[in-house]
């Protein structure tokens, strides 16, 4: 039991609390304090997600009121990752943090796989340190300042600084030594767009850390909410597919490419598995919370607005003025599709009581009708009543809420056209149909097709249809099974023999790209092994090399000759290192060449000989 366990400051990391405890205890050996805190001296102090919290709570005074849940949510970075996990994985991670040694915990949380903007040291705000020294006589490590992607203190509006006293020692506690840090503040400029965006990210992270969002958010809820908001902002098609290119372009324009690069969050349009596509798919790939914040701010403006978001209730009422459900959306059935020309979302609305059916654009006014597809039985009955009165045609049209031609058209269809005094010619839209023949005539149709096929054994289905159209169409509508069993098999479409690509010309063009990239690597003395895949990827023709290389003989021959073996690559590195040492007037020694070139002792005799030859060569020159 440790009775001098210090009080925890607001926004202080548990790592910092234990470091202060170690400092005030006066023990120089970290193992002693670890034994007292965790009953085990082999625990490694961890900055972001420490484990064995339940054991720690059992060794500190109860009157302090620190429970394992309180410490996990308020003194570690787990609360930042928690809202973006599934419920089951979240429970497993909390149990691991409480009762286990934390092996593999960062992989399960997603810190390793989804990491961006990694911080290798402790970060601090000079203004915070100055304030804490004045009021608390000691400085502590802030939880918010250690988050990857946070570079500004939102309280004092100054840039965070890296604590570079000594490299972090993972086997001991590191604390802020006020005498050895730079407390000169560098404040942000409000007119700088980059600074404003970084400050917004910090504010969003702070909101997540200070509020337990795991009660209202999880991976499933976030995924569903993304799609609802994308639908409202017209980033979804009628089939609920994301308009990826439009979303990526608008997202990049909103933040700016430089800002996304600064946060390691640039989106590669050519890569189907880029992080923005992954975040909107049901992928198990871990996505860093900062990237969730970027998308949420783009869609709703803030995390708080995202949590409070309520799906906009679209109203699609019945617009039949003679229906009991007029302007009521309770009895309507809606189908959302895309307009085949403009690709805008279109709602087709049908009243289940009167049958009135119309379509309208989703973004239109709720009481606006785009196109009426079916007036329904109630409207037709009312039309019959109106036609039987002594009204004028225009008065009938006003009464029914439609055009004069519509009144005449449907009065004719319903058999009451003679009651209307009008010379208006209206196409009543009689459907064309193939007359149904008698049984003997149907057999004659079949016989006619069979005879045509016997006379033309190579005839295709299209040829039969064109020459025996009447027979074919009736059988297609009335006896499709007979056609399937008696007509020849449809021809499979084939592109064989149709060479739409001039592969010779393409081979020459791609060869020039490969040669240019190869020369660039050589001239810039890049320390990379030249391989077939490297050249193809850098020139953007990897798919050609993987799938169509047989059609590119020049490229194939060039790649086979250009790619290096491991031995050739080692020799090129040795030559480059030796020349560099000679240029700097440094000693050209065997061990130095191997170290700088990254070579081990098991290199081939040819490489060893090349090293000896270079030493002799440059020694003679000197």
Provide a descriptive summary of the structure in words.
The chain is mainly alpha-helical and 622 residues long. The chain has six domains: 1-190 and 202-209, no CATH class; 216-308; 332-419, no CATH class; 439-486, no CATH class; 503-564, no CATH class; 567-621. Helix content is 48%, strand content 5%. The strands form three sheets. It has a four-stranded antiparallel beta sheet with strand order 5-6-7-8, with no helix packed on it. A hairpin with a 6-residue loop joins strand 5 and strand 6 (345-351). Helix 17 (393-400) packs across helix 18, helix 23 runs parallel beside helix 26 (553-562) and helix 27 (566-583) runs parallel beside helix 29 (605-621). The two termini are 69 Å apart.
Question: How is this structure best summarized?
Answer:
With 622 residues, the protein is mainly alpha-helical. Helices cover 48% and strands 5% of the residues.
Tally of individual helices: 29
What are the segments in which pLDDT stays under 50 over at least 5 consecutive residues? 430-438
Structural class: mainly alpha
Q: What is the quaternary state of this protein? A: single chain
What can be said about the biggest beta sheet?
Answer: 4 strands, antiparallel
- The value of Rg in angstroms is 38 Å
Give short descriptive properties of this protein.
6 domains, flat, 622 residues, two-stranded antiparallel ribbon, 48% helix
Topology summary:
Layout: H1 14-25, H2 30-38, H3 53-58, H4 68-75, H5 78-81, H6 87-99, H7 105-109, E1 122-124, H8 126-136, E2 152-153, E3 158-159, E4 161-163, H9 193-210, H10 219-232, H11 244-255, H12 257-262, H13 275-279, H14 289-300, H15 303-308, E5 332-338, E6 345-351, E7 357-361, E8 371-374, H16 376-387, H17 393-400, H18 404-413, H19 439-455, H20 461-467, H21 469-478, H22 480-486, H23 503-523, H24 532-539, H25 542-547, H26 553-562, H27 566-583, H28 590-597, H29 605-621
Antiparallel strand pairs: 1-4, 2-3, 5-6, 6-7, 7-8
